[in-house]
Design a protein that fits this description.
Layout (H helix, E strand, L loop, with lengths): L2 H15 L1 H15 L2 H31 L3 H8 L9 H8 L7 H29 L10 H32 L2 H27 L10 H25 L3 H5 L1 H31 L13 H12 L16 H10 L19
Helix pairs in contact: 2-11, 3-6, 3-11, 6-7, 7-8, 8-9, 9-11
Length: 346
């Protein structure tokens, strides 16, 4: 064992012996085993497809409502909508020039429906992948569609409650306390909303108590991302926005959506790791830990697509692997192989 490998083995042994580091490594390893980056990219894509028609629909409706009503324009500028990353700045700059269009209203409604159903479907797929549900046990199209509609109802209710709670805090308090209180209320509402959405998206056999740890982590992170999203994206695109204009806005939206998607996937992975005690995981193999074998077995079994198909998983230890790769062969002694060669097969 060379010095580098010895040092890495020492780090690996340390993280496996301490639960906090072992859990963190377990979540990161599970994210990689489930190809979490691809799942987050899918969520980002469908989120963007749903968001752009939604913004078109929103701007059209606002054009009908706000045209010739300065008081309504000020109300929109003072609402939570103006704090939305990227879009809030565009709204502040163009609220006085919004105009309604019937064609834009129709296109926005159809596009939003397509994108919203798409993101609801891909979120259900992501949860099934994270929990390694075999393909044969996953629900069909109509049950997934029903869950999608339920998800929209939960999101709509949560957004209304969050807006009402923030308005109540702002009315009762003022200045810095109102800002801090609004963030605290937003974190609580986002945590509850995340738990409700995870309950809708996650397979029924997973108990609700297994969903709250990741939501308790994701709720405050969503609040921080919402509060600091504009500053973060503005910092990243402070030069590009002047040169590339609308393209910089699109890039900023994608960046913000991808961060949101990654928080969602990592929160779900945290739930799985804690519920199934998938730690400690090894950084260097061999040997595999029991958690390594459990994860790899689940990943293999989730590929079952038909009731007639059954996937069995077995592991070979290091000593058996050495014997299987020629441990009995004597020097200079050739072994015969009676299996047909590629040219003998029909």
């Amino acid at each position: 064992m060379n010095p580098i490998e010895r040092a890495l083995r020492g780090v690996d042994g340390f993280q496996q012996r301490h639960r906090p580091s072992a859990v963190v490594v377990g979540v990161v390893r599970k994210y990689g085993d489930d190809r979490g980056g691809l799942l987050a990219a899918l969520i980002t894509y469908y989120g963007f497809v749903a968001l752009i028609p939604l913004l078109l629909l929103l701007s059209t409706v606002l054009g009908f409502v706000l045209h010739g009503h300065p008081g309504a324009q000020r109300s929109v500028l003072d609402s939570a909508l103006a704090d939305f990353p990227i879009i809030g700045d565009q709204l502040r700059q163009n609220v006085h020039s919004l105009q309604g269009s019937g064609l834009a209203l129709l296109i926005g409604a159809l596009g939003m429906l397509y994108g919203a159903l798409g993101i609801a479907q891909v979120l259900q797929h992501a949860m099934a992948e994270v929990w390694n549900v075999p393909g044969v046990q996953r629900p069909g199209y109509w049950p997934r569609l029903a869950r999608s509609l339920l998800l929209f109802a939960v999101l709509g209710t949560g957004l209304l409650l969050g807006t009402a709670a923030a308005a109540l805090v702002a009315t009762a308090l003022g200045g810095v306390p109102a800002r801090i209180g609004g963030l605290a209320v937003s974190a609580l509402v986002n945590t509850a909303l995340c738990l409700a959405c995870f309950r809708v998206l996650t397979p029924r056999e997973i108990p609700t108590r297994s969903l709250w740890p990741g939501c308790a982590l994701a709720g405050p992170l969503f609040t921080a991302l919402q509060a600091g999203g504009s500053l973060l994206v503005t910092h990243e695109l402070r030069h590009a926005s002047q040169v590339y204009g609308f393209f910089a806005t699109v890039i900023g939206l994608l960046f913000w959506l991808y961060l949101t998607a990654q928080i969602t996937v990592y929160a779900a992975e945290t739930n799985v790791v804690l519920a199934r005690r998938l730690w400690p995981r090894s950084l260097l193999q061999p040997p595999l830990t029991a958690a390594d074998e459990a994860v790899l077995s689940s990943v293999a079994r989730q590929e079952e697509r038909r009731p007639e198909q059954h996937v069995d998983v077995s592991f070979q230890d290091e000593e058996q692997d050495d014997e299987a790769h020629g441990g009995e062969e004597e020097p200079g002694e050739a072994q015969t192989d009676d299996r047909p060669s590629d040219t003998d097969r029909p």
